[in-house]
Design goal:
Elements lengths: L11 E5 L2 E7 L6 E5 L5 E3 L1 E2 L4 E6 L7 E6 L4 E2 L15 E2 L23 E4 L1 H4 L5 H4 L3 H7 L3 E4 L3 E2 L12 E5 L6 H13 L3 E6 L11 H4 L4 E7 L2 E4 L7 H17 L4 E4 L13 H13 L5 E4 L21 E3 L1 H12 L13 H10 L6 E3 L4 E3 L11 E3 L4 H5 L13 H13 L3 E5 L18 H15 L8 H4 L8 H6 L6 H4 L1 H16 L1 H4 L6 E5 L4 E6 L7 E6 L4 E3 L13 E8 L14 E2 L2 E4 L3 E9 L1
Length: 621
């Protein structure tokens, strides 16, 4: 493509001096024309040797509605549309990002250490489900102690509601949440408050409904690879060059035109690429180059736990920053619920599992895994703690329970408070799911507004997935699953932020733990090797965080009955010389709904309260 003054990306419609420049890849088409809404004329684009068609349309301008007419017949929305105001099946709209006035010139981005992530779905984060409605809640997230907002996918998808993982126009923020400038305003306001924003993007498949990529080129999809959701994206096959360019441009677009602070990459195990340079590596380098001098954070979801994703490009990795730690979640949920069926089969929820997850990242780093009858994970003993995103809830895991229940509803209050302390004080990168900070009473379901045929297929697939849980495969449970296509399922998933006040004790617990994480050097340093742990009983363990000049902290966790530890032959319990341990924080404080915490270390040795977490600090004798 000859350089066009004013163009930012290799695809799409862009306002430039003299009109709007259009460019689209359609290598098997003979002609491509731009059709403007309300204009009887069409505007032919010039073919390029690489299969692109491009040209300047002088009568087009910002806000113009348009489609592409292929071979003088069918008309389709732009695969790189920046906005679809009537929906994914209708007219695309020309968007001029230069019209938005940013105020975040002093924002420098983020690096992984020290971050606390908050995953949210804009459509259910507020009753209105819009960017604008979310703005008043941002100061409360700052007060909570959150530093990074991870937004579930917003690429345009068909229907009135959905999770966003079935997007069909990856450059177009869905019209359901507002206009593109509303998204920009959200990011700008977040930056003003000190909050970073990263976006969940789906580069492993495209939604099955109103997906017109193949009309422009069949080469968008792989003939060699597949995914659980349909054809894989073609990153390594015939004519994959423009496909790679399309998705790299998409990643750069979010960083450039929306000032985002990074990306969360969905299901990277299904981003198949056998090229010399993996597409994830190419995306990471392009994003960092575009963001420079701002710092960005790139997070991966990867079910097989392949740590190559977060190793440096120099070391043969892909150069991402962090990876979700499912092992920690699975072990914690077994501990909280007492169930280890389906993909929880290989976890016991034992003290040693949680100690190992805190110290070493993944629990499975190449061992045999019964549930999949194969080896799971890759070595990661050398990785920094901030490389692992720890969570007890996320959108998938909450929705994968029988009734979309959050984990506080699946266990008792004491255990919930204790696991919250472990999550928020551990040296990894903690992540909360929307409403977790105040124990939201509403469920979070899987919901998708699809046509009848596809909706029925989703229902069947969902039911089949849940049958892996033996308890959910029973006849009495089969009729109790909520219909993903019912608007009531979507409405019931919306947060009520007034519960922050009604559940003030739970909110105070999260707020105070995150304050402790910020203000206590041993909890915010995230240095590798500075935390050790020991099993104290079948249900209790201790973590010791080593600070400078013996300014250590103990985190004692007991998920069983009160524990009389006498004798106590565990060196990690020994205070620094000339000092004694004093209680600094307890999840059993009445302010958090607890029943009080008597002294732990007395002349009769240690007595550790059941279903509690207690932080101790040394003081002179």
């Amino acid at each position: 493509m000859a350089e066009v003054v004013g163009r930012r990306l290799p695809v799409g419609a862009e306002v430039v001096p003299g009109g709007v420049h259009f460019r689209v890849w359609a290598p098997l088409r003979k002609t491509v024309e731009v059709v403007l809404h309300g204009d009887p004329n069409s505007f032919p684009l010039q073919s390029e040797p690489s299969g692109y068609f491009s040209g300047l349309v002088q009568s087009a301008r910002a806000q113009s509605l348009y489609k592409y007419r292929l071979d003088q017949q069918e008309e389709y929305p732009d695969p790189a549309s920046r906005f679809q105001p009537p929906g994914s099946d209708h007219w695309s709209q020309v968007i001029d990002p230069a019209g938005f006035q940013w105020t975040d010139g002093n924002w420098h981005g983020i690096t992984p250490p020290g971050q606390v992530i908050y995953e949210l779905h804009i459509g259910t984060f507020t009753r209105e489900g819009t960017w604008e409605a979310a703005l008043p809640e941002l100061p409360y997230l700052v007060e909570t102690g959150v530093s990074v907002l991870e937004i579930m996918p917003v690429a345009e998808f068909p229907g009135r509601f959905g999770w966003g993982y079935d997007g069909v126009q990856p450059f177009a923020p869905t019209r359901l949440y507002g206009e593109p400038d509303d998204f920009r305003r959200f990011v700008d306001r977040a930056h003003a408050l000190g909050l970073a924003v990263i976006l969940d993007v789906v580069y492993n498949h495209v939604g099955p409904v109103e997906n017109y990529l193949a009309q422009f080129s069949p080469y968008y999809f792989s003939e060699r690879h597949s995914t659980d959701w349909g054809p894989a994206i073609n990153f390594d096959g015939s004519n994959s060059g423009p496909v790679r360019e399309f998705y790299i441009a998409n990643a750069v677009y979010w960083i450039d035109e929306f000032h985002l602070d990074g990306l969360r990459l969905d299901a990277t195990q299904d981003i198949h690429d056998e090229s010399d340079e993996h597409i994830l590596s190419a995306i990471a380098q392009a994003v960092r180059q575009k963001a420079n001098p701002r710092q960005v954070m790139l997070v991966a979801e990867n079910e097989p736990q392949n740590t190559k994703l977060v190793r440096s490009i120099e070391d043969g990795g892909y150069g991402l920053d962090a990876i979700w730690n499912d092992d920690f979640h699975h072990s914690a949920m077994v501990l909280l619920t007492g169930h280890n069926e389906a993909y929880y089969t290989d976890y016991l929820g034992s003290p040693q599992e949680l100690i190992s997850a805190i110290k070493h990242g993944f629990l499975y780093q190449g061992q045999h895994y019964k549930w999949q009858n194969q080896r799971r994970g890759t070595p990661c003993l050398d990785l920094e703690p901030s490389s692992f995103v720890l969570f007890t809830q996320n959108h998938d895991q909450v929705a994968n329970s029988a009734y979309g229940l959050r984990c506080h509803a699946l266990t008792d209050p004491g255990r919930y408070r204790a696991i919250t302390a472990l999550l928020l004080l551990a040296p990894g990168t903690p992540m909360l799911f929307q409403g977790q900070e105040f124990a939201a009473s509403n469920p979070f379901f899987y919901f998708a507004d699809l046509p009848a045929k596809q909706g029925q297929a989703v229902d069947r697939g969902r039911a089949k997935f849940l049958r892996q849980f033996r308890s959910l495969a029973t006849p009495e449970m089969a009729s109790r699953f909520d219909d993903p296509g019912d608007p009531k399922t979507f409405e019931r998933s919306k947060l009520d932020h007034l519960e922050r006040e009604r559940h003030a004790e739970v909110y105070a617990l999260h707020r105070d733990l995150l304050k402790l994480r910020r203000t206590e050097p041993v909890f915010n340093s995230q240095r590798k090797g500075f935390c050790d742990g020991a099993v104290l009983s079948q249900h209790a363990f201790v973590l010791r965080f080593f600070g400078e000049q013996t300014n250590d902290r103990l985190l004692l966790l007991n998920f069983g009955l009160d524990l009389d530890l006498n004798p106590a032959p565990e060196p990690l319990l020994a205070p620094p010389e000339g000092k004694l341990w004093k209680m600094l924080f307890s999840t059993e404080h009445p302010a958090y709904g607890g029943s009080g915490t008597p002294p732990l270390e007395t002349e009769k040795n240690w007595r550790i309260p059941g279903c509690a977490a207690v932080v101790m600090k040394p003081e002179p004798r």
